[in-house]
């Protein structure tokens, strides 16, 4: 019996080949999309769950409350918290701090830059990172020991075995120190928050950079707790230890005018990857993107399944005479039901097999798009396999059950006459099409707004010309203004360089007072050339000048945002009463100029009050160089030559400012591409479903069209009549999509301080695109039906 069902199923697939291919392809594309997104979400949820003691590993967190009522959460601490809490709290079995930074290495006169991580001796006790060579208990015991991962070992020594016992020089505090390789570890899994290339003992870092301060945060700190430890009790103990050990520092802080308060806490390591509440958490990922992708997967799968069900119903309609003949020769309703369900399951199985092939083919592109390294083998865990088996059974059953239920109940005389209950008003089928087009329209609207927001971020002027402007970090110049001047003078002599200036590396700032108001400002330590080389505009007053010897000690420039914040009408000559800088004391700084606002950060951050100072005690370390566009490659080569002449022990590393500005929006660009792909996929699958509904409707009305043609109706009027019927469905889907799209896009855009408006015309454009694609899909079937010879349909009566 089943052999007979299989033969009939294959024959029917071949008989309606085009429709069958559309049906199978639509479902397989939806399933492949769902598989890839499930792999992404599973990967995100699996972060840090490979550690043997995953349930006992916690990250130290800090809630810092300010005097003005604001607060910030941090997943980092200072040097002292880890050892102090471990010493006094018995529930803490082990601790390790991690400090990852880019550092210069020297190996047999070969200079390179690598990411190194300073970690405590207990690193391999807390985390499960297997060693290829070396003893995890003692591998970091010596202050001059070093552990490489296998990739770095192969890069420098050819193999893990050859690396053991070798030495590499590492620049620490401006000097090269020799570290001996005591072990080689397997590379950290891709789903690990902690990634490392070279591990060095934190004990040496603490020796090189001693600090006993409690009231600053910089290093991720992790604890291995005893099983069953009461987390709230441990947190109370930590706060008590902090209040006791840091009392003197807290009192001095309050005397200096600070009212901030630190509260220490613990968060499970396995929850930190999808937690963006804490600053400083390594590899933190915004969970909103998993929600978006999960929604896209669900929408696409629903659309694909609806489409599959619709097209299966369309194919079943054409088989009414077959059903009638089977009933005449004795087939029971049960047999007919099993036949339809078997055929549906077979078609569904083919779609699932094709989906696996498509997912495997597209996976490399998907990995590149999502910045992942996912394998298709990750699908083979029992939860995902169970989910897909259930999906396979439910989809096949849903697609085959409705036609089986209706067609198997037909009287033979009705079946042979082609009178099926399926070709009724098609309310269910129409509702499904409306629903899937509403989802497709929602995705198109979302894509249009994501494109618009991305264009706003990348094309809005940053306030200075960022073309042909490059940044060079000069680490040894952080504390030496004279050295920075030497670099500036040498670079400026190159014919292709139009200007050079310098500033501090990174950003720093804090509490500021002016005109009786207290606020937070960003401080930039610059030389007199910096603003002119940058291309920033001085709106009022003047720049720093060597003609005024006191500028560096008593003068500052401010930006327009600071002027507005303070409320000055005439800022020139006004004073900054307090700046949160080391050794600043009670000095008041006079404002000598106002700089036009420019975006010091990306447009994802609002422009903050800025103060430009020449204070000599502050660090420097970043050179900006504006080059002429002609012969830029030659200019870069000359810059590298000059740099190596001044500093032969460091690699010449630079970055174009325009490129770094654009890289700030890599995440938005990635999601723009994902949403575009999802919208295109949804429209394609929805259109195939609409194509099936158009075929079903045309089948229902073929006799009507035959009579109309006999009475003189034109092909165009008949085609327009069919298209008009479907335009109403698309309009309903558009009206359903508008409120959902508005709500989602409004919430998404709220994350950006500078954002596009929710303009009505983008909603209208999405509606027009959907309507055009839908009518284009229907038109083919409408014209085909309208052009049919009337006798072909009327002779069946």
Beta-strand content: 15-25%
> Could you list the spans in which at least 5 consecutive residues all have pLDDT below 50?
none
Biggest β-sheet strands, sense, barrel: 8 strands, mixed
Number of domains: 4
Q: What Rg, in angstroms, do the CA atoms define?
A: 34 Å
Please explain how this structure is put together.
The structure is a single chain. By secondary structure, the chain is α+β, with helices and mostly antiparallel strands. It folds into four domains: 1-47 and 287-423, no CATH class; 54-271, no CATH class; 431-461 and 665-797, no CATH class; 469-663, no CATH class. Helices cover 50% and strands 18% of the residues. The chain contains 26 helices and 23 strands. Strands 14, 15, 16, 17, 18, 19, 20 and 21 form an eight-stranded mixed β-sheet that branches. Strand 1 and strand 2 form a beta hairpin. Helix 15 (427-459) packs across helix 25 (760-786) and helix 22 (666-700) packs parallel to helix 25 (760-786). It is globular and about 105 Å long.
Question: Brief overview, please?
Answer:
The chain is α+β, with helices and mostly antiparallel strands and 797 residues long. It has 26 helices and 23 strands.
Keywords:
797 residues, alpha+beta, 4 domains, eight-stranded mixed beta sheet, 23 strands, globular
Topology:
Layout: H1 2-15, H2 17-45, E1 57-65, E2 71-74, H3 81-88, E3 92-107, E4 110-119, H4 123-126, E5 131-133, E6 145-149, H5 150-157, H6 160-163, E7 167-172, E8 175-185, E9 198-201, H7 202-208, E10 221-225, H8 231-245, H9 247-255, E11 261-268, H10 287-317, H11 320-328, H12 333-370, H13 382-407, H14 412-416, H15 427-459, E12 469-473, H16 481-492, E13 497-504, E14 508-514, E15 517-525, H17 530-534, E16 538-541, H18 551-554, E17 555-559, H19 560-566, E18 575-576, E19 578-579, E20 589-595, E21 610-613, E22 621-627, H20 632-646, E23 654-656, H21 657-663, H22 666-700, H23 702-710, H24 715-749, H25 760-786, H26 790-794
Helix pairs in contact: 1-2, 1-12, 2-10, 2-12, 2-22, 3-8, 10-13, 10-15, 10-22, 12-13, 15-22, 15-24, 15-25, 22-25, 24-25
């Amino acid at each position: 019996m089943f052999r007979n069902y299989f033969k009939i199923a294959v024959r029917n697939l071949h008989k309606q080949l085009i429709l069958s291919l559309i049906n199978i392809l639509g479902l397989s594309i939806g399933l492949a999309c769902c598989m890839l997104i499930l792999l992404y979400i599973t990967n995100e949820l699996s972060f840090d769950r490979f550690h043997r003691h995953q349930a006992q590993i916690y990250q130290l967190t800090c809630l810092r409350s300010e005097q003005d009522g604001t607060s910030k959460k941090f997943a980092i601490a200072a040097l002292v918290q880890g050892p102090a809490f471990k010493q006094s709290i018995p529930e803490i079995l082990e601790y390790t701090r991690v400090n990852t930074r880019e550092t210069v290495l020297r190996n047999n006169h070969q200079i390179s830059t690598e990411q190194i991580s300073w970690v405590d001796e207990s690193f391999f006790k807390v985390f499960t990172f297997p060693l290829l060579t070396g003893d995890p208990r003692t591998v970091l015991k010596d202050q001059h020991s070093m552990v490489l991962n296998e990739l770095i070992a192969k890069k420098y020594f050819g193999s893990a075995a050859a690396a053991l016992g070798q030495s590499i020089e590492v620049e620490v505090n401006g000097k090269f120190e020799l570290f001996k390789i005591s072990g080689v570890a397997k590379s950290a899994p891709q789903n690990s928050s902690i990634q490392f290339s070279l591990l060095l003992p934190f004990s040496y870092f603490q020796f090189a950079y001693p600090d006993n301060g409690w009231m600053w945060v910089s290093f991720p700190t992790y604890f291995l707790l005893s099983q069953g430890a009461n987390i709230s009790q441990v947190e109370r103990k930590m706060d008590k230890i902090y209040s006791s050990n840091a009392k003197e520092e807290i009192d001095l802080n309050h005397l200096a005018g600070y009212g901030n308060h630190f509260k220490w806490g613990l968060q499970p390591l396995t929850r930190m990857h999808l937690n963006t509440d804490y600053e400083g958490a390594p590899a933190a990922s915004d969970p909103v993107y998993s929600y978006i992708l999960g929604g896209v997967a669900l929408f696409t799968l629903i659309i694909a399944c609806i489409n599959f069900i619709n097209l299966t119903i369309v194919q079943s309609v054409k088989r009414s005479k077959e059903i009638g003949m089977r009933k005449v020769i004795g087939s029971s309703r049960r047999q007919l039901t099993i036949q339809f369900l078997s055929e549906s399951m077979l078609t569904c199985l083919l779609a699932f097999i094709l989906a696996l092939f498509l997912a495997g083919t597209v996976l490399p592109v998907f990995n590149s798009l999502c910045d992942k390294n996912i394998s298709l083998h990750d699908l083979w865990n029992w939860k995902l396999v169970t989910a897909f088996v259930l999906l396979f059974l439910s989809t096949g059953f849903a697609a085959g059950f409705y036609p089986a239920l209706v067609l198997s109940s037909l009287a033979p005389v009705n079946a042979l006459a082609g009178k099926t209950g399926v070709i009724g008003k098609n309310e269910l089928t129409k509702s499904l099409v409306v629903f899937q087009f509403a989802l497709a329209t929602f995705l198109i609207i979302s894509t249009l707004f994501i494109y618009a927001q991305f264009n706003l971020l990348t094309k809005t002027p940053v306030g200075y010309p960022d073309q042909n402007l490059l940044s060079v970090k000069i680490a040894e110049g952080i504390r030496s203004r004279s050295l920075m001047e030497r670099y500036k003078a040498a670079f400026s002599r190159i014919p292709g360089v139009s200007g050079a200036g310098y500033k501090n590396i990174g950003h720093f700032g804090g509490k500021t007072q002016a005109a009786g108001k207290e606020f937070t400002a960003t401080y930039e330590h610059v030389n007199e050339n910096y603003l002119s080389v940058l291309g920033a505009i001085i709106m009022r007053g003047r720049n720093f000048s060597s003609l005024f010897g006191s500028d560096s000690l008593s003068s500052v420039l401010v930006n327009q945002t600071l002027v507005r914040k303070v409320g000055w009408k005439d800022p020139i000559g006004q004073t900054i009463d307090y700046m949160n800088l080391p050794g600043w004391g009670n000095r008041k700084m006079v404002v000598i100029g106002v700089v036009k606002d420019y975006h010091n950060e990306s447009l994802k951050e609002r422009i903050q009050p800025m103060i430009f100072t020449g204070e000599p005690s502050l660090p420097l370390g970043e050179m900006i160089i504006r080059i002429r566009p002609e012969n830029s490659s030659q200019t870069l080569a000359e810059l590298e030559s000059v740099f190596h002449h001044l500093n032969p022990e460091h690699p010449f590393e630079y970055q174009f400012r325009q490129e770094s500005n654009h890289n700030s929006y890599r995440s938005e660009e990635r999601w723009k591409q994902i949403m575009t792909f999802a919208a295109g996929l949804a429209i394609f699958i929805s259109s195939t479903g609409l194509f099936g509904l158009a075929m079903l409707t045309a089948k229902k009305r073929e006799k009507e069209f035959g009579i109309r043609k006999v009475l003189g109706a034109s092909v165009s009027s008949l085609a327009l009549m069919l298209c008009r019927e479907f335009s109403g469905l698309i309009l309903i889907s558009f009206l359903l999509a508008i409120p959902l799209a508005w709500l989602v896009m409004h919430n998404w855009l709220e994350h950006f301080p500078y954002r596009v408006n929710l303009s009505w015309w983008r909603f209208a454009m999405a509606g027009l695109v959907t309507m055009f694609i839908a009518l284009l899909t229907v038109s083919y079937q409408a014209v085909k039906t309208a052009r049919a010879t009337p006798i072909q349909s009327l002779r069946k009566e």
